[in-house]
Structures are given as structure tokens and as C-alpha cells.
Specification:
This protein has 13 helices and 21 strands. The protein has 436 residues and is an alpha/beta fold. It has three domains: 193 residues, 3-Layer(bba) Sandwich (FAD/NAD(P)-binding domain); 132 residues, FAD/NAD(P)-binding domain (3-Layer(bba) Sandwich), CATH 3.50.50; 56 residues, no CATH class. The chain binds flavin-adenine dinucleotide (FAD).
């Protein structure tokens, strides 16, 4: 593809996970000119992140290989700003403006990381974070790893870590035994999921899975040495080299917010509100996959395909998938109920616990503010490199502020910290012509 600073596409898709990939190949199958962008090096999103030690699963290969020459894939490319029917993006080729006939938001989800004493020690990461590190080659061989938090991602992370040579000492699930057994029994409605769960359990044979158990503290001077846990057996200490702890997923709604799309709150977190046709509240903008609510890979694939049809006006083809979508979303709802966080999880951080790790802001510094916005102005909480993606989300979950933890006054551009050179480039782009 010739590198141009301003390009027009029939369909532009942000995010190349299962939802974005399915949307791209579907829209292209109708003859549309499609562009797919992703911040990662390769397409696949979170679940199909490339693993240096093993080939991609067949299902992933099938979807990725089906990307045709009608699709431009822009890797390592971030969306920075949104304007009328166009996005300003920054990637290896510099800043570019991409205008579109229709935009599909498929920006997925990130891990919910919650603060507890010691969570910033070297050797402590998210569960999905540890999985991603292992897949990218971070040495795990022989390391004693404890996996903790909540939800099925713990099993997937533990299986990956074991495959990379880690000694997984145990999986600690905060949900009660009753909740987990109830969830397992309900899988008869989703035989594909039941098969996936059984296959995962087989890969985890011999690893203790303890319910109703959570991490109270990570201990060590310079790095993690010991983990303190609590559960039905009381408080225990376990020596380990790595703690991988994650409390489920939250949708990446920041780009949708920037575009002015209406959000829907489910508990402490927001997802993009869509109608039956996956239309957002902003004209010509659709959304699919986990950005519309945590739903797993199958939901993302179905919604991506539907959004790809809708984006080119093929609504009859999309309607045929509606019942599959409802069935897949019902699974998501079951998942959400089964792994709801217990109040104890919200009470682990103490006064000295750092909440904003980018700007070193402890919990004690956030007392007395009524909103994240107020706290941000006074303490710099949420003003670091992650732009509040970790601490803002955690604060919303913990319910620290009476008004909730979110910046409900919308997102201001840029979405990510930006180089001054990129900003300068963006001004000159607008004076150039559009190519299509
Ligand atoms: C860390 C992690 C690990 C996971 N591991 C597993 C697993 O092992 N097994 C499993 O079944 N499920 C796993 N999941 C859940 C899985 O991600 C989802 O079920 C499914 O992949 C959702 O697909 P999606 O296309 O909606 O989003 P995702 O797969 O999350 O893809 C979204 C993509 O959008 C890109 N993106 C987001 N914002 C921007 C932006 N502003 N600019 C450019 N690109 C952007 C991201 O880089 C990402 O590639 C994991 C989730 C996470 C967060």
C-alpha cells in the first residue's frame, strides 16, 4: 500500500481482535474497501496474541488468513483523535488521517487490576498480563507462580504459564464454590464452552483450584517473595516468584467516548450502548465484541460479522445472526453473575497502598474528594502514562468517590500520550488531499 497521509475507506475498523477481524473480512466480502488498525504488532487481539512457543490455534489462523487484499492492516497504530467522519492515527509511518463511510469500534477489553498491599512489587502482574508476557518470551521456566483473582481467564492464563515451563502452585478464585459449581452446571446450555472448559481443566491437571480465596498482600523488600492469602482455611502464606492476579475484564470505551457515543453502565463500569443492528448513538459508527460488554471470543466473532454486514448496508445477512448473538450474550450474562466480585475484594487496599502507580498516589491522598476529576486536579491521580486506564477503573470498582470513579464529562484528545512531532504532522495532513 502506498503511504499517504490522508486516506479514505468505505469501512474503517479500530481493533483487530476476533470482533475486528470478523468485521473486516465480512465487509470486504461485500466488495468494500476496508482498513483495520491495531496498536499491536500482529492481528489477533488478546485471545489470539501470538505465542513464540506455539502456533496460533486453527480457528485464529482461519480468520487471520482470510483477510483479503481489499483490507489494509495498519499494525502498531494507535487512534489518537477523532474528527467528523475521520480518525487521526499514529503508527510506524507517522501520523495519518483516515476518513470513513462507516466506522466499527472493536477495541475489546482490558484486565481489571485492583490494588492491594504489595501489588506494585516487581513479580506481581495481571493474570492476562503474565499470560501476554509469557507468550512474548518473558522467561517463566521453573518459576513458582500463583494465579489469582476471578473468572475463566485465570484458567487460560495458568494453562499458558504452565505450557511455558512455570510451576503453577495454584489458582485462587475469589468467587464461592457454590457460584463456580453453578456456573459449571449451566454450561450444558453452551456445549462449545463446556468442551473448552474441559480441555482447559485437562491442561491444568494436578494444579489446586481454590474457591472463595483471595490475595491479601504481596510481600518482599525488593521483589515479590511471599503471598498472603485468605479463604475458607484462614490466612496462609505461600512463597513464590510470580503472582498473576486479575479480577476480570472491563471494556475499552475511551475511543467511543471521544466520538461521543452513548455508554451504558453495568455496575461500576461502562460499555458502548448499541441497538440490535450494533449501531451506536453516533451516526455511521458501529461497535462489536467486548467493547459492548464482556462476552468472550464467540460473541466477538458473531458481533464482528454482524457489524461488517451492517457497515455496508447488508442488514438482511446480519439479521440471520441475531439469534446466535442472543445465545452468546446469554452466556456472557451468566458469566457476569457467577463471578461477581465479593465486597472483601474492594476492601484490600490500605491507606499507604499506591492507587495510581504512574504518579505514585496512595489511597490516603484520595480521601475527601467527591469525584475522580477533583482528585485528578489536586493529586495528578490518573494523569500518567496509562491516562487513568488502570487507577481510574480500579477507583470506579472500589467506589472510592461518591459520584463514581469515571470521568463522565467525556474524554479529551489525545487518547494516548502523543509526540509533539505527531501533533505538528497532524496539522499539515489537513492541508493535503484525500486518496481513496
Ligand atoms: C489480557 C487478556 C488476555 C485474555 N486471554 C484470553 C484467553 O487466553 N482465552 C480466552 O478465551 N479469552 C481471553 N481473553 C478474553 C478475550 O480477549 C475476549 O474474549 C475476545 O478476544 C474479545 O475479542 P474483541 O475482538 O472484542 O477484543 P480484543 O481481543 O480485546 O481486541 C481488541 C483489539 O483492539 C486493539 N485496540 C484497542 N484500543 C485501540 C486503539 N485506541 N487503537 C488501536 N487499537 C486498539 C487492541 O490492541 C486489541 O488488539 C483475554 C482478555 C484479556 C484482556
Amino acid at each position: 500500500m502506498a503511504e499517504r497521509a490522508h486516506e479514505h475507506y468505505d469501512v474503517l475498523i479500530a481493533g483487530a481482535g476476533p470482533a475486528g477481524l470478523a468485521a473486516a473480512r465480512t465487509a470486504a466480502s461485500h466488495g468494500a474497501r476496508v482498513c483495520l488498525i491495531d496498536a499491536q504488532v500482529q492481528p489477533g487481539g488478546q485471545v489470539w496474541r501470538h505465542d513464540i512457543a506455539s502456533p496460533l490455534p486453527r480457528a485464529a489462523r482461519r480468520v487471520i488468513d482470510s483477510l483479503s487484499n481489499r483490507i489494509d492492516f495498519l499494525a502498531q497504530t494507535q487512534v489518537l483523535m477523532a474528527q467528523e467522519r475521520s480518525l487521526l492515527v499514529d503508527g510506524p509511518q507517522g501520523a495519518r488521517r483516515l476518513s470513513y463511510g462507516a466506522l466499527v469500534l472493536a477495541t475489546g477489553a482490558r484486565e481489571l487490576l485492583l490494588p492491594f498491599p504489595g501489588w506494585t512489587l516487581p513479580g506481581v502482574t495481571g493474570a492476562g498480563g503474565a499470560q501476554a508476557l509469557a507468550k512474548q518470551g518473558w522467561p517463566m521456566t521453573g518459576k513458582r507462580v500463583l494465579v489469582a483473582g476471578s473468572g475463566p481467564l485465570l484458567l487460560a492464563a495458568a494453562a499458558t504459564l504452565r505450557a511455558h515451563g512455570a510451576r503453577v502452585l495454584g489458582i485462587l478464585e475469589q468467587a464461592s464454590q457454590g457460584a463456580v459449581l453453578g456456573f459449571a452446571a449451566s454450561l450444558v446450555r453452551w456445549p462449545g464452552k463446556a468442551a473448552q472448559a474441559l480441555a482447559l481443566r485437562a491442561r491444568l491437571l494436578g494444579i489446586p483450584y481454590r474457591t472463595g480465596t483471595l490475595v491479601r498482600a504481596a510481600l518482599g523488600e525488593d521483589r515479590l517473595r511471599t503471598v498472603e492469602i485468605e479463604g475458607p482455611r484462614g490466612v496462609e502464606r505461600i512463597e513464590c516468584d510470580h503472582l498473576a492476579v486479575g479480577y476480570g475484564l472491563v471494556p475499552n470505551v475511551e475511543l467511543a467516548q471521544l466520538l461521543g457515543c452513548q455508554l451504558l453502565r453495568t455496575g461500576a463500569h461502562a460499555q458502548v450502548a448499541v441497538d440490535e443492528s450494533l449501531r451506536t448513538s453516533v451516526e455511521h459508527v458501529y461497535a462489536a465484541g467486548e467493547v459492548c460488554g464482556i462476552g468472550g471470543r464467540d460473541t466477538a466473532l458473531i458481533e464482528g460479522e454482524m457489524a461488517g454486514h451492517h457497515a455496508v448496508g447488508a442488514s438482511v445477512a446480519a439479521a440471520a445472526l441475531q439469534s446466535h448473538r442472543r445465545h452468546a450474550r446469554a452466556f456472557a450474562e451468566r458469566l457476569r453473575q457467577s463471578f461477581a466480585l465479593r465486597p472483601r475484594v474492594h476492601a484490600l487496599a490500605v491507606e499507604e497502598t499506591l492507587i495510581c502507580r504512574c504518579e505514585d498516589v496512595p489511597l490516603s491522598a484520595l480521601q475527601g474528594f467527591t469525584s475522580l476529576r477533583e482528585a485528578k486536579l489536586a493529586t495528578r491521580c490518573g494523569m500518567g502514562a496509562c491516562q487513568g486506564r488502570i487507577c481510574g477503573t480500579a477507583l470506579a470498582e472500589l467506589g472510592v468517590f461518591p459520584t463514581g470513579g469515571h470521568d463522565d464529562d467525556g474524554r479529551r484528545p489525545p487518547l494516548f500520550p502523543i509526540r509533539l512531532a505527531t501533533l505538528a504532522e497532524s496539522f499539515s495532513i489537513d492541508s493535503q488531499g484525500v486518496h481513496s
